[in-house]
């Protein structure tokens, strides 16, 4: 029976033992031999680097740290972006009781014990409890359910951290009771600032070593926005340098310490454009091995995977096109996977797309066709839209002759009718010229038949009827027949002028850099 402590032998003010699975160890002052990332944790909110979008006056994160508002918060972000650091700031910045547990080791019993203790202490005027749960996405649905009532009535203020998308890994009722704060990977400048601070700060290396520019660049690229990874690598490099009785960490020392060779790759310089150019040319040249090499080079160097995905999507239409229409689907799926999955796993999706595109048959007919069409438009070719194609749905349009004479292709058994679609000055112009590569071979056989029916070229012979059936699916239907025969078809001429051979199309991705230089990142 619940006695509310009236007959308890212990004093109401006596401290309560921490439940199993809960602890505050590691949330005090770090020991002198603690890892460098632990020693360099910010002690105040002003020392926190990055996440400026969460640090504005009155922002939820600032209110959480200062205790101005007891709101429950879920921190979502990649490793090394400051989730645990924020928990440390909350633990040390206010007089609230702070209890930490990991979802890896805690169970429902442990969570309920913390909540029961917090409820008893509130009854006796004790401090409010902040419950920090690391890796909350590893909690089962039942474990997350056990938090709902306590978070709802603020028996505890929940501070949860996760690297997984909470919309998939956290139950909706708990998510609706919390403020979701998204932490972003730190930029290179932020990581660089922290490396320099750790090198000189007394909490860190205290100036015992210096870091060359090349070694610093290597550690920044290696971190890929993960501050913990950068500081761990710096500590390993410093230990290696001091063991050799030297005080300067050069590139060779940094490479040996972390056992990762530096990749000569400047994301804002020539190497960036050279590598992406070689990457595109390797796929165009149908060399999957070379393409995978350059993909790996970019990923290891910390290139933005979204940039790589964009280039792959462009390549799918620019260089593969109709020779393998599925290539664009594969490329766009890989780009979506980059957004939803993220690195490192999304590297597999990119590699999948690269191998598909490199080994696919190639055709630039789409690129050439669009380029020539745009050149004609820029040159002023292309008159008014033929009247029978104009919109005839608004009142008065019929009086203007809009839609008059239009022939509905579906009324013809072949699904194709003789009709002019282009403006008068482009009649007979061919932009699209299919190749015989891959799937485009079948398209190349169909296009001339379609053009003959649409443009009305040549007499209808037995062989032509056979070709027409192949193009439109009809059997023995004269090309002039249609349910719209009562209407007058648009003018048809027999002009056969081809595209202007000098009409420049889209700039081809040749040795100029495969349009990579046009990518503004």
UniProtKB/TrEMBL annotation:
Which residue range or ranges hold the AAA+ ATPase domain?
69-186
Query: What is the top-level taxon of the source organism?
Result: Bacteria
Q: Specify whether ATP-binding is a keyword of the entry.
A: yes
Concerning InterPro entries, the annotation shows: AAA+_ATPase (IPR003593), AAA_assoc_2 (IPR032423), AAA_ATPase_RarA/MGS1/WRNIP1 (IPR051314), ATPase_AAA_core (IPR003959), DNA_pol3_clamp-load_cplx_C (IPR008921), MgsA_C (IPR021886), P-loop_NTPase (IPR027417)
The ranges of region (Disordered) come to 1-35, 452-521
Compositionally biased residues, Acidic residues? 508-521
List membrane-spanning regions. none
Compositionally biased residues, Polar residues? 477-496
Q: Biased composition, Low complexity: where in the chain?
A: 10-32
Recorded family membership: Belongs to the AAA ATPase family. RarA/MGS1/WRNIP1 subfamily.
Name of the protein described by the UniProt record: Replication-associated recombination protein A
Species for this entry? Actinoplanes subglobosus
Q: Give the source lineage, highest ranks first.
A: Bacteria, Bacillati, Actinomycetota, Actinomycetes, Micromonosporales
């Amino acid at each position: 029976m619940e006695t509310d402590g009236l007959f308890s032998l212990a004093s109401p003010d006596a401290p309560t033992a921490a439940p199993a699975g809960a602890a505050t160890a590691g949330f005090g002052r770090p020991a002198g031999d603690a890892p460098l990332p632990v020693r360099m944790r910010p002690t105040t909110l002003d020392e926190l680097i990055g996440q400026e979008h969460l640090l504005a006056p009155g922002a939820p994160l600032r209110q959480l740290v200062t205790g101005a508002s007891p709101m429950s918060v879920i921190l979502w972000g990649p490793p090394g972006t400051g989730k645990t650091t924020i928990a440390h700031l909350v633990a040390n910045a206010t007089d609230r009781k702070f209890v930490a547990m990991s979802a890896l080791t805690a169970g429902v019993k442990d969570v309920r014990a913390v909540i029961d203790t917090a409820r008893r202490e509130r009854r006796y005027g004790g401090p409010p409890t902040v419950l920090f749960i690391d890796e909350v996405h590893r909690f089962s649905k039942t474990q997350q359910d056990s938090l709902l009532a306590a978070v709802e009535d603020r028996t505890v203020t929940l501070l949860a951290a996760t690297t997984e998308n909470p919309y998939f890994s956290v139950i909706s009722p708990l998510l609706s009771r919390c403020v979701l704060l998204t932490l972003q990977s730190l930029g290179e400048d932020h990581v660089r600032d922290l490396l320099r601070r750790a090198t000189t700060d007394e909490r860190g290396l205290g100036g015992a070593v210096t870091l060359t520019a090349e070694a610093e660049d290597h550690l920044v690229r290696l971190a890929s926005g993960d501050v913990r990874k950068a500081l761990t690598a710096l500590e390993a490099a410093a230990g290696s340098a001091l063991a050799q009785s030297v005080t300067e960490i050069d590139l060779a020392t940094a490479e040996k310490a972390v056992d990762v060779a530096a990749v000569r790759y400047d994301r804002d310089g020539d190497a960036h454009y050279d590598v992406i150019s070689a990457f595109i040319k390797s796929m165009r040249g149908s060399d999957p091995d070379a393409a995978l090499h350059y993909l790996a080079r970019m990923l290891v160097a910390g290139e933005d995977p979204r940039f790589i995905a964009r280039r792959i999507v462009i390549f799918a239409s620019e260089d593969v096109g109709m020779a393998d229409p599925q290539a664009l689907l594969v490329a766009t799926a890989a780009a979506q996977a980059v957004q939803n999955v993220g690195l490192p796993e999304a590297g597999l999706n990119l590699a999948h797309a690269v191998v598909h595109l490199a080994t696919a048959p190639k055709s630039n007919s789409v690129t050439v066709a669009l380029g020539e069409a745009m050149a004609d438009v820029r040159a002023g070719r292309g008159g008014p839209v033929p009247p029978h194609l104009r919109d005839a749905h608004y009142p008065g349009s019929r009086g203007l002759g809009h839609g008059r004479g239009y022939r509905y292709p579906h009324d013809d058994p072949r699904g194709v009718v003789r009709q002019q679609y282009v403006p008068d000055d482009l009649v007979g112009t061919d932009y699209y010229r299919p190749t015989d590569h891959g799937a485009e071979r079948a398209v190349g056989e169909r296009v001339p038949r379609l053009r003959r029916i649409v443009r009305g070229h040549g007499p209808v012979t037995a062989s032509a009827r056979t070709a027409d059936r192949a193009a439109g699916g009809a059997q023995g239907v004269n090309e002039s027949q249609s349910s719209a025969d009562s209407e007058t078809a648009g003018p048809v001429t027999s002009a056969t002028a081809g595209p202007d051979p000098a009409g420049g199309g889209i700039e081809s991705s040749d040795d100029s850099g495969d349009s990579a230089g046009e990518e503004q990142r």
